[in-house]
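Suppose you are handed only these lines of text.
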Amino acid sequence: MSQSNSILWSFDVDGKNFDSAGFASQSTKFKLRQLGLNGDIIKRVAIAMYEGEINMVIHAEGGVANVEVDEDKIIITLTDTGKGIADIEQAMREGFSTATEEIRDLGFGAGMGLPNMKKNSDELIIDSAVGKGTKVTMIFAI
Amino acid sequence: MKAKELADKLGLKVFCGDCECEITGYYVGDLLSWVMGRADEGNCWITIMNNLNVCAVAKLLSFSCVVLCEKVLPDEKLLEKAKAQNITLLGSDDAVFATCKAICDLNC
Ligand SMILES: Nc1ncnc2c1ncn2[C@@H]1O[C@H](COP(=O)(O)OP(=O)(O)OP(=O)(O)O)[C@@H](O)[C@H]1O
Ligand SMILES: [Mg+2]
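From them, the structure of the protein bound to magnesium ion can be written out as follows.
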């Protein structure tokens, strides 16, 4: 697949800004619809990207969301320079959350975000270093 | 049934939205990622959450409408955004359980 056949877009995700949280995933949903992708994949991308986007807002200081649409797959990359994840296996567990009371009051902190990302994507790759940041890659086969 | 019919029959407040979407199912919950993972397109979402994040979830999952229970009012930012995005936002004076019971009574 040559690079020139892919469509790319990206967003700056503002940390601690709950007002704009969800913008990247909503815009992506809209664009994927315009590209004529089917409803099932759009829903899966929207859910998984929202969870990843929100995680960058509540657990890191924001970051960058990149979307790449190829002929046979969609690749979402979420990169932040936040505190990182010490134990990825533990973080992946349903119900595990380090969210503060304040964050929980907003409706987050069920510990379901990463499991939702896993469930909705075809491949989830998490690269993280404590104190340096986290890179989440999600691949969706078209 | 359309959101409008639900609002009429249950005497729900209409905070905003055209109430024209067809309700194809119901989902109850307040934890957003739980709702994100389990609810379906077309659902009427019953919750007590009233902040801006409600909009993002409702839009991303293409809900037919959202019912805020327990006399909860949408906060200012939620109302503004829901209006802008044409999300049907309804309000019930009853608790979540009583609201759900009233819906079940309608459907049975
Ligand atoms: N980008 C990130 N940077 C640092 N830590 C993260 C990041 N994403 C996830 N985590 C860690 O992994 C944990 C689990 O994440 P997950 O999204 O599953 O749950 P949550 O965000 O705590 O709650 P929910 O997603 O249900 O609202 C978080 O509580 C946090 O400790
Ligand atoms: Mg999360």
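What can we learn from it? Strands of chain A lie at 7-14, 62-69, 73-80, 123-129, 133-141. DSSP finds five helices and five strands in chain A.
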